[in-house]
Specification:
The complex is a heterodimer of chains A (about 110) and B (about 120).
Chain A lengths: L8 E4 L5 E6 L9 E5 L6 E4 L13 E6 L2 E6 L8 E8 L6 E3 L3 E5 L1
Parallel strand pairs in A: 1-9
Antiparallel strand pairs in A: 2-6, 3-4, 3-7, 5-6, 7-8, 7-9
Chain B lengths: L2 E5 L3 E2 L5 E8 L7 E8 L6 E7 L4 E3 L7 E6 L4 E6 L8 E10 L5 E6 L3 E5 L2
Parallel strand pairs in B: 2-11
Antiparallel strand pairs in B: 1-3, 3-8, 4-5, 4-9, 5-6, 7-8, 9-10, 9-11
The chains are: A mainly beta (about 110), B mainly beta (about 120).
Chain lengths: ~110, ~120
């Protein structure tokens, strides 16, 4: 079955830039979306269409995609950004959706 | 503002059937959206279960396809999830979500319910 691969954890100090990657074959032709989840609450969309930011999401959140690799960047990470982050996309057939395994971001 | 609310038994016996409902409030279920289910086992990541379109067309995760059914009742503004032959591995928080189609390049969930915990245990 189709998979998206993320690093299990990323750690930065406050004010530093955090980068979380997501790799998968379909990302070269499908959009990547990024969700933030805190403490098993409902996920919140922070990036859509590879690099677009929904209203209400701080400007420090940005996204990019090149080939089969997508990246979520948090510029000047804050303590409140500590959370699990998941990439989400569709397989090449367009019939199945998939989440990455998730990345735990620690900011301290 | 659309709101989603999951409901159903919090405890299901092994080999039994898990049955959940997601009520959609704040607007009709229009043909602009798909409606999906996602689950999260304790301490683990998010898993896409499947989705249903306004018309009733469905898509399911290959790993669950043999056991899962998602249905829609537009008159009641709700969707349902049925998962058969459950085991302890099906213990999870189950979320329902509204899904948007992004042209030919993707789908994404923009509105989520708060989730409901289901434990499989005798």
């Amino acid at each position: 079955s189709y998979e998206l691969t993320q690093p299990p954890s990323v750690s930065v100090s406050p004010g530093q830039t955090a980068r979380i990657t997501c790799s998968g074959d379909s990302l070269a032709e499908k959009y990547t979306y990024w969700y933030q989840q805190k403490s098993a609450q409902a996920p919140v969309l922070v990036i859509f269409e590879d690099s677009e930011r929904p209203s209400g999401i701080p400007e420090r959140f940005s996204g990019s995609s090149s080939g089969t690799l997508a990246t979520l960047t948090i510029s000047g990470a804050q303590v409140e950004d500590e959370a699990d982050y998941y990439c989400y996309s569709t397989d090449t057939t367009g019939l199945r959706r998939v989440f990455g395994g998730g990345t735990k971001l620690t900011v301290l | 503002q659309v709101q989603l609310q999951e409901s159903g038994p919090g405890l299901v016996k092994p080999s039994g059937t898990l049955s959940l409902t997601c009520a959609v409030a704040g607007g009709p279920m229009s043909s602009s959206y798909w409606w999906g289910w996602v689950r999260q086992p304790p301490g683990k990541g998010l898993e896409w279960i499947g989705e249903i379109y306004f018309s009733g067309s469905t898509k399911y995760s290959p790993s669950l396809e043999s056991r899962v059914t998602i249905s829609i009742d537009r008159s009641k503004n709700q969707i349902s999830l049925i998962l058969t032959s459950v085991t302890a591995a099906d213990t999870a928080v189950y979320f329902c979500a509204r899904e948007r189609r992004d042209g030919q390049l993707g789908f994404y969930m923009d509105v989520w319910g708060r989730g409901t915990t289901v434990t499989v245990s005798s």
